[in-house]
Amino acid sequence: MKMPEPEQAILDQLPELTRRLKDLLGDQGIVTSERGRKAFESDALTAYRQSPMIVALPASTEEVVEVLKICFELNIKVVPRGAGTSLSGGALPLEDGLTLGLSRLNEIIEIDFENRCVVTQCGVTNLAISDAVQDNGFYYAPDPSSQIACTIGGNVAENSGGVHCLKYGLTTNNILGLKMVLMSGETIELGGKYMQESGYDLIGLITGSEGLLGIVTEIIVRILPKPNIARAMLIGFSNVEHAGECVARTIASGIIPAGMEMMDKLALNAAEDYCHPGYPRDAEAILIAEFDGVQSEVDYFIEQVSEIATDLGATSIEVSKSEAERMNFWAGRKAAFPALGSISPDYYCMDGSIPRKKLPEVLRQMNVLSKKYKLRVANVFHAGDGNLHPLILYDANKPGELELAEDFGADILRLCVKVGGALTGEHGVGVEKRDLMYEVFSEDDLAQQERLKCAFDPKHRLNPGKMFPKLHRCAELGKMHVHGGKLLFPDIPRF
Amino acid sequence: MTDIFSPTSLDQVTEIIRDYIVAEKSLDLRTGGSLISLGSKMNTGGTMSLSELDQIKLYEPEELVITLEPGVKLSELNKVLTEQKQELRFEPPDLGPLLGIEKGCGTIGGIIGNNLSGPKRFMAGAARDYVLGIEGVSGFGKVFKAGGRVVKNVTGYDVSKLMTGSYGTLGAITEMTLKLSPLAETEVTIAVNELSDVEAIILMAAIAGSPFEVSGLAHLPNKATYVRIEGANASIKERTDAVLSIIGKKSTSLIEKEQSLALWQNIRDVEPLAPPRDIPLWKISAPATEMTQIITGHNPEFYYFDWAGSQLWMSSDQTPKINHGAFWLIRNTPDNKNSLPFMSKPDPVTEKLQARVKNAFDPRNILNPGRMGF
């Protein structure tokens, strides 16, 4: 994995940049010491590390504007960062880049129950939004596993999902408006406390753009009324394929659970050792299915799914009888990553997405790969929406094992793409999957996406080195050549 | 006399666009054309209709996805989906009759190109929320794709959403993959009588903020305020009772399944405002709490609210005066076609950004030039 070469011209500007940022933000708003900068050297994809050239910590949209104006004038690269929980290296710093930490923009600006939305700054955590509205019976639906720490701004950048997005959608389906500062320092406001905006759907484009188009400083999110009741089922199967079939039949029968998760034997036993949720240790796979709504509907769905599971030879079916029991079913799933961390020195979390019915095939192939690479793999799976999280267990202290794990991971993602799935379901491309983009897209597909990047940031100052495997000059991308009555398509030169 | 093309393959679409780039002529890009009156008037060198790209390429009911070409008629699509007890949950409207065209002519290409959504929008999302992937041909004469056919996919920019509602100004959409939903087993509508606009908006907010997942909230002045409840047979009574208890002592009546279906189709297709045709018809999306102010400002004779009060259909000779939100001119009177704007304008910085986005797809401005007002 190669990042863009540091630009000497930028490194030379550091004293001037430092002086101007200090004037603007004061000592508490910048980090310049080697030790201080080291704290920002990676996000949750810890395999990659790089200390940033400098860190700026603005506390308002106005300060973000001023920081970007300075960077724009001095041609400095900018890497935005929320809470640093990205699993794809989206916030990996650059040696010649300023890391723009946005965690100080942490105020909820307005709660509007009548229009069912919250206006918030980008550094507020995902969970804090739900906490702020829960007493009035509302919540914010997307719930990534990192929701206690991750910021809503980061969620917008990555279009985060979570276990409940099967029924309630991803971040992009729950955003009504954005305030964004462009690299030039200009500010735009899109959408508002209403459902449809005129013009192009820039909110849709910006959500999931991984910090390459602008700095989102304020967000209007939709909040939903909390369901009356929620109950979960814990279903054990003696083989993984039947568990997969149970998911497929449930969805095909017209039932959309609030969440439907699968864990394989390795993952469920690790979770059982770690926090004792009472999972059936002898099962090859478990499903956790949650239903929410009104009593009669929840009961009805549970009955239906019980029948489907029984037909498929489920070895155990439990239904939560209390809120505590429901939370307990989830506890093991939510602790799956640390649980696996406790049985292996390191793990590498993948994020492929596949058509549901391809699950058995993909799991079979994954076992073949596991044998080939001689590395164990545990599977935690948003089964309802086809989003796989294989965790490859390895030991970084053994020479070559990290590289082996990365190669194994890349093979898994190629497999997902081959069966009609996606390279990344919810973690983003970042640096991690950047070089695999050609598995999904042609040169033309990516050129079109890069032209969009150029519309927002023609000098490639925002988060360069992420998402796109190659960087092309905007002027070249925008050219069309007609010669002798024909349209010519020359190769586009790269930087 | 301008050229009219009806390509039958992706290659032909590409070829026509390339020819027009070389000839420096612009194209009126449409599917069936039943929604072409939405948008500013264009002067183009030719017309390309995608209505003959009309195949369903892949339909996997168990995966809840469908891949299809733009020319597939909505009437045909609905038939195919209903057989499998599925639907497009954003309720694509049929605006044909409203625009003076017969029923059932609309295509999925028109719906996606215009990002049109029906009454469920406030709880189930808009057309754009159901587009998983797209293939198109840009104003560079290049084929490109984005997204895919799985629900969860954050690989690259979400160009599918950007293309949805771009009125054919960014490219010709030649194929799209949409997310489907199971059809509810049954539905019932509660009609609440004799509410003023203010009372209706307060009630609709209270019901939308309750956990009973109602799927329609519309207020037709001098008729009734309608609350639609959909779901499993097993739960419909419990939810109806719960909603009735929120409504309280007001006068209500129940509308059972068949009539309920017809009622919401009527609301979806804007039939209540089909006549009068001599006043321009506007669609306004704004905060529900600001709607009565808009009504006071215009004092229209014909109007109604959908989307739990956050969408207003209004007949008015004047351009809507709104503090927040967006509007579209859905139907004009024939005589003053150009004197009213087609849609609300963003701030100047956003406007320039929109122009750069257009430029990123179509630098020579040959695809539906000016249709969105820029």
Question: Overall pLDDT of chain A, averaged?
Answer: 95
Overall geometry of chain A comes to globular
Work out the count of structural domains of chain B.
3
Distance between the termini of chain B: 25 Å
Spans of chain A of at least 5 consecutive residues whose pLDDT stays below 50 are none
Oligomer state equals: heterodimer
Instruction: Give the beta-strand count of chain B.
Output: 18
Largest sheet of chain A: 7 strands, antiparallel
Q: Fraction of residues of chain B in helices?
A: 25-40%
At CATH level 3, the topology of the largest domain in chain B is: Uridine Diphospho-n-acetylenolpyruvylglucosamine Reductase, domain 3
Topology, element by element:
The complex is a heterodimer of chains A (495) and B (374).
Chain A: H1 8-12, H2 14-25, E1 30-31, H3 34-38, E2 54-56, H4 61-74, E3 77-81, E4 97-101, E5 108-112, E6 117-121, H5 126-133, E7 138-139, H6 152-158, H7 165-168, E8 175-181, E9 187-191, H8 202-206, E10 215-222, E11 224-225, E12 229-237, H9 240-252, E13 259-264, H10 265-275, E14 285-293, H11 295-311, E15 316-319, H12 323-334, H13 336-343, E16 346-349, H14 359-373, E17 377-382, E18 387-394, H15 401-418, H16 443-456, H17 474-477, E19 481-483, E20 486-488
Parallel strand pairs in A: 2-4, 3-4
Antiparallel strand pairs in A: 1-2, 5-6, 6-10, 7-11, 8-9, 8-10, 12-14, 12-15, 13-14, 13-17, 16-18, 17-18, 19-20
Chain B: E1 3-5, H1 10-23, E2 27-30, E3 46-49, E4 56-60, E5 65-68, H2 74-83, E6 86-87, H3 108-114, H4 121-124, E7 131-138, E8 143-147, H5 159-163, E9 171-179, E10 181-182, E11 186-192, H6 197-208, E12 216-220, E13 224-231, H7 233-247, E14 252-255, H8 257-268, E15 281-285, H9 291-298, E16 303-306, E17 311-315, E18 326-331, H10 348-361
Parallel strand pairs in B: 1-3, 2-3
Antiparallel strand pairs in B: 4-5, 5-9, 6-10, 7-8, 7-9, 11-13, 11-14, 12-13, 15-17, 15-18, 16-17
